[in-house]
Amino acid sequence: MGGTVKPSVRRLVIDVEPLRADASFRRLWIGGALSSVGSRMTTFAVVLQVYQTTGSSAAVGVVGLATLIPTLVVGLIGGSLADALDRRKLVLVTGSSMAVVSLLFAAQAFAGTERVWPLYVLTGLQSLLFAVDSPARRTFVPRLLSKELLPAGLTLQMLAFHVSVMVGPSLGGVLAAAGGVKLCYLIDSLTFLVALHAAFRLPPMRVEGVRSKPGIRSIWDGLTYVGRNRIVAGAMLSDLSATVLAMPFAILPALNSLRFGGSPSTLGLLNAAPAVGGVLAMSLSGPVGRSVRKGVWLLVAGALWGAALTCLGLTGRLWVALAVLAVAGAADATAVVLRGAIVQSSIPDEFRGRTTSIDFVVGAGGPHLGNFRGGVVASAATPSVSALTGGLSCVVAIALVALCFPALRRFGPPAEATTPGRHSGEESVPVGDQT
Fold first, then answer.
1. Closest by alpha carbon to 333, among 168, 149, 165?
2. Where does the protein end up (predicted)?
3. Distance (Å, whole) CA 173 – CA 49
4. Is there a domain that residue 430 lies in?
5. What is the model's pTM?
């Protein structure tokens, strides 16, 4: 009996073969996981320090603007640089610079400053550097892993991300209570050393194919390429459909107050539930990594996200709300992995940095716009109406993406071997096309 059960269990749980197969990926994963925990600690510490200094929620909200604006402005430039330079060297420069910024965070905390503008400036600088670092860093995994192992590698990265979302703020709270926010900043700067060591051990990561010159023309060529590649464009639109139309976090405080008693501990559970679902989904992600029709499952995951948040708008029971938020988190994590595998498998290396930067901007900007939409609708009507209309509109939008982008639905081994959209007459770019 044991011989028949074990293979089925192995197919169900997360595939760790990339960690065994490639030492460079293993070092990148460990360094990235530790650095992500450190970054979450710093984010927690900045919010806490701003609130302790000002006592103002509006001042805390400015931290979000200081993060978002540099990300949107510099994100596409980061992709242009990644397609022009040795990506390994670029990451070493940006990673070292971010470690210095973490030390500056610690320095201002040790100095005991009562002003918040240094926190805003350092947050903006950190976001600017990350917007350049992330597109280049994301090109490493497709170069290190085969197409067969790529989904499993992206799944492992998503698992590390969701674990950091849960562990980072909690650990930051313990450290801040024990020795102040300066401990969070110091430990964050130390985690960069592990990530930098992993990048230093990589071989040169020069662009394969025609190297572009950084600038407006390069950015425009990247945007044009994504617009013509129906698989990539459809995948990104599915993400925007989910995040812009149905992001729930802005309405959770009001929903908690109106339906679940308003306790801060309950609000904490509501905010943590999607991350818990994400961790569970990634831990049991074997079938996702091995799925053949990744485009279909991407659309299913997007629709499931919308359906779960529709249920959030209908329920008055806390356990149901936590359950559907966990389902939404699981669907979101699955969609992120599938979108990454689809996008990275559908582009040539010379466009990888720019395409990844567009995906990065979409992933960063969509949730902020979605939370804004959710908050406005909740204020004009009710939080339940916001969740209900957002979830339903997401499902409709995902259905329209499936209808308008048949190349995405067909994505899989046959689509990877042929021109996207060839069977429907869509304007498209062949996989691996360099124009």
1. 165
2. Cell inner membrane
3. 12
4. no
5. 0.70
